[in-house]
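Q: what sequence does this backbone want?
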């Protein structure tokens, strides 16, 4: 164990049975071409302490496509060591060939994961039947919970709501990260499946939560994650005016964070904060100078907001939203569905 470890041991038991709240797909820090494991562990601990509900290792934001299989495992082990056994961590899995994806899934059989985030096969654009069979083969190879990842802009194929509903009959499939950019499809998933529906389009986060979405896997939440946790709890408490005002503060930065290919803008912000080097692996490149200037300007107001904390015992700090809403709208931040403490 290292200096960042939050617990003394890890457990192989399943940590969570449902996926709600704000989950953060971590960037992968690099230093001179190699993974900077110390920076990754420090970042994981800071995110885990920020009020978010879980982390994703080796997602798109983590430049997973540019990591070797050995690096995937080493990075995951590093993050798990940092946050300890009771904070949920999901492992990202992707690929076009079902056999290769199944082999990758089997490598994590003994890891104490909250689940696997698995995207549809990319590039090959299979039929919906092919998507079903792909995921069924994966489910047959693992005891881990599976979060479907629908991101047609990257994979070239949409996981239709009917396909998700069919897969959801298997208890392995517990949630979907919906990043198709269509609120209608998100609504169909909420109505027609038993899956927890997580928003994967950060600009649609407030709309998704207001429709009854269960949370988000948000790359933008890596910047001021406490405010995204606050937004989630405000919506859950029915404080929609306060939530809307807060989201108006978040949206300009969200737009800039996706004005250039992810995760370059997120890494630019984290580099400004001294948390990681602004280093990416080709074909990803750093954010443009003009983009960084615009992002730095937009961040000033957001970073000036007080840090928000949530627990079962503490109330929302007096004045935390004074810039946004009246004191009459401030409510205790009670974590009614905190699944970190479920066995």
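A:
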């Amino acid at each position: 164990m290292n200096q960042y470890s939050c617990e003394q041991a890890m457990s192989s038991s399943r940590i969570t049975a449902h996926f709600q709240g704000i989950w953060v797909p971590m960037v992968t820090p690099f230093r001179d071409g190699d993974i900077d494991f110390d920076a990754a562990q420090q970042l994981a601990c800071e995110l885990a302490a920020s009020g978010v509900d879980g982390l994703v290792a080796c997602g798109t934001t983590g430049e997973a496509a540019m990591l070797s299989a050995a690096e995937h495992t080493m990075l995951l082990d590093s993050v798990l060591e940092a946050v300890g056994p009771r904070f949920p961590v999901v492992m990202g899995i992707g690929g076009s060939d079902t056999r290769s994806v199944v082999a990758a899934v089997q490598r994590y059989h003994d890891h104490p994961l909250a689940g696997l985030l698995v995207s549809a096969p990319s590039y090959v654009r299979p039929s919906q039947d092919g998507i079903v069979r792909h995921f069924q083969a994966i489910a047959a190879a693992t005891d881990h919970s599976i979060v479907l990842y629908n991101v047609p802009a990257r994979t070239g194929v949409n996981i239709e709501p009917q396909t998700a509903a069919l897969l959801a009959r298997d208890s392995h499939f517990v949630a979907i990260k919906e990043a198709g950019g269509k609120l209608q499809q998100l609504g169909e998933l909420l109505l027609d499946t038993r899956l927890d529906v997580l928003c994967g389009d950060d600009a649609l986060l407030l709309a998704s939560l207001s429709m009854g979405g269960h949370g988000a896997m948000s790359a933008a939440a890596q910047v001021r994650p406490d405010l995204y946790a606050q937004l989630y709890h405000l919506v859950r408490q029915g404080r929609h005016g306060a939530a809307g005002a807060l989201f108006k503060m978040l949206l300009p930065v969200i737009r800039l964070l996706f004005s250039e290919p992810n995760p370059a803008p997120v890494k630019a912000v984290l580099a400004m904060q001294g948390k990681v080097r602004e280093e990416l692996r080709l074909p990803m490149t750093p954010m443009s100078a003009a983009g960084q200037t615009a992002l730095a300007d937009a961040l000033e107001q957001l970073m000036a907001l007080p840090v928000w904390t949530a627990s079962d015992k503490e109330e929302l700090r007096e004045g935390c939203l004074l810039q946004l809403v009246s004191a009459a709208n401030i409510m205790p931040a009670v974590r009614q569905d905190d699944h970190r403490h479920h066995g």
